[in-house]
Amino acid sequence: MNNIVYKDRHVTVFQSALFQTNSTVVEMEDLVLVVDPAWLPDEVMAISNYVDKIRGKRELFLVFTHSDYDHIIGYGAFRPDKVFMSKAMAENPEKELRLEEALEFDDQYYINRPYPLVYPAADFTVFRDAVQYRHHSTKMTFYLTPGHTADSMMVVVWQIGLCIAGDYLSDVEFPVIAHSSVEYEHSLNKLLAIHDRNWFTRLIPGHGNLSLSINDWLQRRTESLSYIYALRESIATGVPMDETGLWDRYHFPMSQKKVHSDNIELMTGEYGQGLWSWRPAENEKSRQEDHEPDEQ
Q1: Residue 22 falls inside a structural domain
Q2: Distance, first Cα to last Cα, the chain
Q3: Regarding beta strands 153-157 and 162-164, do their DSSP bridges make them parallel or antiparallel, or are they unpaired?
Q4: Could you give the number of structural domains in the chain?
Q5: Please, what sign has the CA dihedral across residues 206, 210, 212, 213?
Q6: Is residue 148 domain-resident?
Q7: What residue numbers bound the domain in which 26 lies?
Q8: Residue 75, Cα to own-chain centre: how many angstroms?
Q9: pLDDT tens track for 73-120
């Protein structure tokens, strides 16, 4: 099955039949970069075979945007020269749990893989914003974006104006907040400064359609922030959130209602701990602030 949903001179995006999960291959003059190879065995092997076909003598780099099992499940199919991830992902105390989730998925659906399921081993860890890695003429810049998970990060391939965002700014799912809504909001605000310093035009989310214009990913950012603010207001005031517009925009309610409930539970706990408060005037001010990333 040909599951390539986008291709140009430098970028090929494979999309899984499961959750519209995107795996990105970036072909530069001096390297081939693979980001989050996923899901089903045939899909992962199609990516691996494609890389073998185009690679030649170039080095192969793998980048993992975070440690959710669906994003690391293809690691064992590759023999990279270097693996990149956040320091938090490399030091994740729940590595074995991520692997157990992958094994449970395969067991549930009777899946046999022609490669081992192992947690990625890091060669290069990102410990702060704006960490750069240069390989001959190619420059990658990494930014920490916790919120979805504690170990999330984004990568910008500078020469081609491309941001690979992990599980942010999807057009098929609202924010999945497994770690912190406060950090999630900060990461979304940080995105403006990331763009100003790198001037990317295209953005690839972990799931759903690519964002191929600045206006499009800015709109997705606005929609993500609006969801967080609406949910906070609902929790703080005790008035149930009107979900009509939510399911008009996101079309998979049977699975996403559970995610929405989990978000409510997490954010209710945050509110109880005083991690955020709902004061519209102050919140509006926070929307205007740029969260400047550190420079290396």
Answers
A1: yes
A2: 43
A3: antiparallel
A4: 1
A5: negative
A6: yes
A7: 4-223
A8: 16
A9: 999 999 999 999 999 999 999 999 999 999 999 999 999 999 999 999
Instruction: Phi first, then psi: give them for residue 176, nearest 5 degrees.
Output: -100, 105
Residues facing 131 on adjacent strands? 142
CATH number for the domain spanning 111: value is 3.60.15.10
Token match 């690391």: residue?
72
Q: Give the span between the Cα atoms of 133 and 151, in whole angstroms.
A: 19
164 strand-pairing partners? 155, 204
pTM reported for the whole predicted model: 0.92
At 13-46, the pLDDT tens digits run 999 999 999 999 999 999 999 999 999 999 999 9
CA gap 66, 166 in Å, rounded? 7
Residue 131 corresponds to which tokens in the numbers above?
């960490």
**Residue 48 corresponds to which tokens in the numbers above?**
């691996």
CA–chain centroid gap for 39, Å, is 15
Beta carbons within 10 angstroms of residue 257's beta carbon: 13
Q: Which two tokens stand for residue 11?
A: 């970028």
In a domain, residue 278? The reply is no
Is 274 domain-assigned? no
